[in-house]
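pasting for the record
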Amino acid sequence: MTISSAVPDVDAVARELLGSTPRSVRPVGAGRNSRVFKVDLGGRTVVVKFYRRDAGDTRDRLATEFRALRFLWDNGVRVVPRAIADDRSHYCAIYEFIEGQPPKDVEATDVDALVDFLASLQPLRAKAEGAAIGVASEASFSLGAVVDHVNARADRLRNAGGDELVQWFGEFDRLFAQIESWCRSTAGRLGQAFDADIDATRRALSPSDFGFHNAIRRPDGSLAFVDFEYFGWDDPAKTTVDFLLHPGMSLPDALKQRFAERFVQGHAFVEGLRNRARIVYPLYGLKWCLILLNDFLPDRATTATADVRAQQLQKASELIDRLRREYRENPFV
């Protein structure tokens, strides 16, 4: 990970890009993928975001997010920050500051706001084709590709070694084999191709990593949405089940069911979406098990304590137990 522990020169960035000297600079959040600062310019407040860069990771987080937010803003979407300026030399960007706090007490109307936002992106699909909008991060357009991604993540963890994971992988591998077999047979029964990509008419624009963990409740009670580093074309079935499975959110089942039902209705142009979401649900569940164990990878070794790794291993084990109970019958779609 190449986010420096040194404090970036936010003053210099503000002067170079905006011609203003900050009155105050305050860190915001504690994300692993970026360093974010709230900057008071005197009568105007902005966010300066410095992006993470990893050796071997070809994703351009800065370009993806800046292009996505500018594209959305130019097309009338006002529940996201406005992109103001970017700086490749410092690998950072400046955005409008949105006043508010992460939502705490989530209600049905908030779930509806999330779904309405995702649905509002789809009329822009034709425009996105000409706006250099690329594929969302780790998008998989075939069921077989999801299996390949799970295998690749599992191999990375296995190669990292560690006695702590040996027993865990015994449970994981047995469940993976059962789920893959079930997914293949169920896809055949429901008329879903397993190894062929879905065509463009069944793809959707998506922030990819989306949920209340990337939302802000503004003073008037409405929601705004941030963090578009992974934005692009995606399989809407992935968007559906990632929301249901995301470990960064704890929601009652009733709200998860509401999201899934309204999301499927709002993406009626996607043929077979409900069936496809049922099939990919356990595959993405397995992927989330592995994401939870990222702290076992070598590039996290210097920052993740033994206690943190133990906690993440417990979470991954609990998710395996949940998938074992649920994979034949998705409880939400």
